[in-house]
Amino acid sequence: MKITELEAVNLMRGSIGKAPVSSITSSNPDIIAARSRLRQVTLEAQSKSWWFNTESTVTLVPNTAEEIVIPGRALEVRPHDPFAYLTTRGDRMFDPTKNTFKFKSPVEVDMIVHLDYEELPFVAANYIQYEAARKFQADFDGDPQRVQDLRRDAQMALLMLKEAEQRNRRNNVLLSGASLRLQYGIRPHRMGARNPTWPGG
């Protein structure tokens, strides 16, 4: 199940006492403002690494100019190798140790990516629509009771999102390389060697 942008905008319009609409492709100032606020909150929420918007060991390949261009949907890019001192400048990868944008070989990175609102899992979209409605209502009307109600709804939705994060992260941890080595009794410092004193060894 997903929440559409139209549904989120109508929730936001309802927070200021406006009737729902059947389309968001309109020049109506309320709709434009609601979509803008929804996009802002979507970006803010996704700037954190969640299970659904984190991509690990992505290979970025240099172009013909020997530069690595950062994907347009990337909110944050980090080298997968913890010992690789690389950063981003603008839309390109930069090597500060060599003071260059030039790369001779591909680089593996971990990325936090921006997903469109309707690509989000239900729990994330639900939190974002209530948080966006709270801010939208404060912008237009600022009714204390409505703001308080929306804040409560947003907090409850955030709790559900965090619970989903814990469930999904736990699954990822159990399938990680370190965890699998532990389960199969492989010594962490000697790949492939078994140790009878290590759990499962």
What is the oligomer described by this structure? single chain
Rg from Cα: 22 Å
Number of helices: 5
Distance between the termini: 44 Å
Question: Approximately how much beta-strand content do the residues carry?
Answer: 5-15%
Order of helices and strands: HHEEEEEHHH
Helix content: 40-55%
Helix and strand arrangement:
Blueprint: H1 5-15, H2 29-46, E1 54-60, E2 74-79, E3 87-89, E4 92-94, E5 107-113, H3 122-140, H4 144-174, H5 177-183
Helix pairs in contact: 1-2, 1-3, 2-3, 3-4
Textual characterization of the structure:
With 201 residues, this protein is of the alpha+beta class. It folds into two domains: 9-48 and 118-174, no CATH class; 54-113, no CATH class. It is built from five helices and five strands. The chain has helices spanning 5-15, 29-46, 122-140, 144-174, 177-183, and strands at 54-60, 74-79, 87-89, 92-94, 107-113. The strands form two sheets. Strands 1-5-2 form a three-stranded antiparallel β-sheet, with no helix packed on it. The model is unreliable at 177-186, 188-192 and 194-201 (pLDDT under 50).
